[in-house]
Structures are given as C-alpha cells and as structure tokens.
Design a protein that fits this description.
Elements lengths: L1 H10 L1 H7 L2 H7 L12 H22 L12 H13 E4 L2 E4 L22 E3 L4 E3 L1
Antiparallel strand pairs: 1-2, 3-4
C-alpha cells in the first residue's frame, strides 16, 4: 500500500489528495518493520485487514468513472492489485486475510512490491527474500 501511495503521490498528487484518508499518513508514512507490528495475532490480523480495505478503496477509486485512465497502468497499482488478490478474499462484501492454505504457491507469490521478481526462499535454516 505504501509503495502504491508513494507512486500516486509522484504521478498524480492532486488526484491522491482528493482521495486520501487522514489515517493513511500515520499508517503508511513510514515503513512497517517487524518489530513495530502488533504482538498479538488478532491485532496483526486486524492491521492486515485494515491495509486490505485501504488497498481496495484505492483500487476502487482508480477504476471509478472519471478517474484518469493512466492511473490504471501504473506498475505500483498493478502490483497492489496482484498483492490484494493473493492475500485477501471477499466474503459478503467484506475483505478478509486469506488462510495459509488458500494463498498462491511460493513460486507465484509476490513478496516485495518494489521487486516483483523477488521470491521467498529457504535453504537449510535461513530464509530470505531475493
């Protein structure tokens, strides 16, 4: 979400300002580091679903009638859409974080919005994305 917002701020700042939400500055103004994530699983799930709702809000606004068509072809927006599909499902008009058994295979999974070709790997015990 942060990557998409930063890209929109660069190429369409006026459009973004007309569609932003005040909490986005606090939520996406800095990188989320593992140490800053909530410790409790329920709180992490709530954060993930909130991010998914924000992403869906941005994507919906981009495909609204009257939105500049060029927004739809910004690479960061396509990555946001792909990450949304891989991590979230819609049930009764609500977005939900996918269960582990319903996400794409690791070979298809996008791990980094700034490097769509990066894949998660594990060899012996260390794991890395690259």
């Amino acid at each position: 979400m942060r990557f998409a917002l930063n890209s929109l701020a660069t190429v369409a700042p006026d459009w973004l300002l007309s569609h932003d939400h005040p909490e986005w500055v606090e939520r996406y103004g800095h990188r989320i580091e593992e140490g800053l994530l909530p410790q409790r699983q329920e709180e992490r799930l709530a954060l993930a679903e909130g991010i998914g709702q924000d992403g869906a809000r941005v994507l919906s606004a981009i495909w609204e009638e009257g939105a500049p068509v060029f927004l739809r072809v910004i690479p960061a927006i396509e990555i946001l859409r792909q990450i949304g599909v891989q991590n979230y499902s819609w049930e009764e008009r609500q977005i939900h974080w996918r269960e582990a058994d319903t996400i794409p295979a690791a070979s298809l999974f996008l791990n980094s919005p700034s490097d769509p070709d990066a894949r998660s790997r594990k060899k012996r015990t260390p794991a890395w994305t690259g």
